[in-house]
Amino acid sequence: MRNISDIIEQHLKKILQQSNGAVEIQRSELADKFQCVPSQINYVISTRFTVEKGYLVESKRGGGGYIRIRKVEIIDNQRFYNMLMETIGESITAAACDNIIERLREERLISLKEMQMMKTATGRVLSSVPIPLRDRLRADILRAMLTTIFVY
């Protein structure tokens, strides 16, 4: 059985599909609908609708507050490449790296096999590297792979 976070995520993604990639919701109304606390909605949005996964989230707190979620469309591969490089920066966590790789697959920029290879090269294989260096090495590897995909 799926957990409440999965159900809320699927609900929001369905609304996004039906509304051409943008949705504005009231946190409290969504919490009421799913009989959960508003912080559960915050958790879902902050972990499932990230920049790495291709979403922009804007929120306004207070009485008339809202959460606006927008799916970012890739129009120009060069801009997308530049945005990815900026997002990666000097280091990247395993989770953020996986999100970027999954987004590449979702956008059909890489095959399933390429996705699996990229995840393997940036995942547990790095566990022998000391923690301070691990995220930096992961970023270097991911940037090199992205350059191969987008530049060559």
UniProtKB/TrEMBL annotation:
- Keywords recorded for this protein, A-Z: DNA-binding, Repressor, Stress response, Transcription, Transcription regulation
Q: CtsR N-terminal HTH domain location, by residue? A: 3-73
Q: Name a biological process GO annotation.
A: regulation of DNA-templated transcription
Stored Gene3D superfamilies: Transcriptional regulator CtsR, C-terminal domain, Transcriptional regulator CtsR, winged HTH domain
The record's InterPro entries line, in alphabetical order, gives:
CtsR (IPR008463), CtsR_C (IPR041473), CtsR_C_sf (IPR041908), CtsR_N (IPR040465), CtsR_N_sf (IPR041902)
Q: A Pfam family for this UniProt protein?
A: CtsR
Which branch of life, at top level? Bacteria
Family, per the entry? Belongs to the CtsR family.
According to UniProt, the name of this protein is Transcriptional regulator CtsR
